[in-house]
Serine hydrolase
Amino acid sequence: MDRMKEKDKFLERQIHELVEGVEGKISLNIELPAHTIQLHSDVPYSAASLIKLPILLEGFRQIQERKLDPEEVIPVTQEDKVGGAGVLSHLSPHTKVTVHDLLTLMIIVSDNTASNLLIDRMGMDSINGMCRLLGLEQTKLNRKLMDFEALESGVDNHISATDAVKCLKAMENEVLFQLSSRESMIRILQNQQFYQKLPGSMDRNKVFTANKTGELPGVEHDSAIIRYNQKTVYAAVLIDELKDSSEGSGLIMKVGKCLNDYLLT
């Protein structure tokens, strides 16, 4: 036990040393099996695409309650399409996808069009109700994705590092969800195509990763479930007010490497 505590404290020192020299506001919450590393973890940040975590959770809650049919076919009109990450905005104007496809695309390629279609289908109030149900104290969906007019007027979506970790843990442990729902959500996160941040320097042949990133101008986030053998780490690193976004993503990748080494040694 003493060796484990020493190992946890060494990791904490490593991470604090990494974040000291980086410009920007940094928040993190890293839950180890027997220790938690926190830095400004309850401060609300611009959520960017991390807001898609509670949208995913509410989607599967509504599927369980039969309010949402995963096989329902949703048309994607030209008016629905928005820019940023994703593929739907680049497909033909007569594209149709299922609700389950929308949930998958929203996470694995962070598709903003898919996210907005789900917000329309489920309702913003219902998604915020899920946030309250899970005790996400700093998380609120206030606008759709890529709504820069709302953003310029001061309306934004928010989340904290603590809340992002709560979302990840809910996908594995929350009794609100059936086992099949939890397995489906984790599988979607595991198939993430944007793994250059926390998992970027990990040995992904050995270490299980399931993550969701977020980015906006000056904003770099990542959140992940990381597992090796019987040890699981839940991590969220949020960075705002960056002058150089590559510095933020690089820092997050270094934090991920520390977590990889912690699990493998």
Summary: The two ends are 15 Å apart (CA to CA).
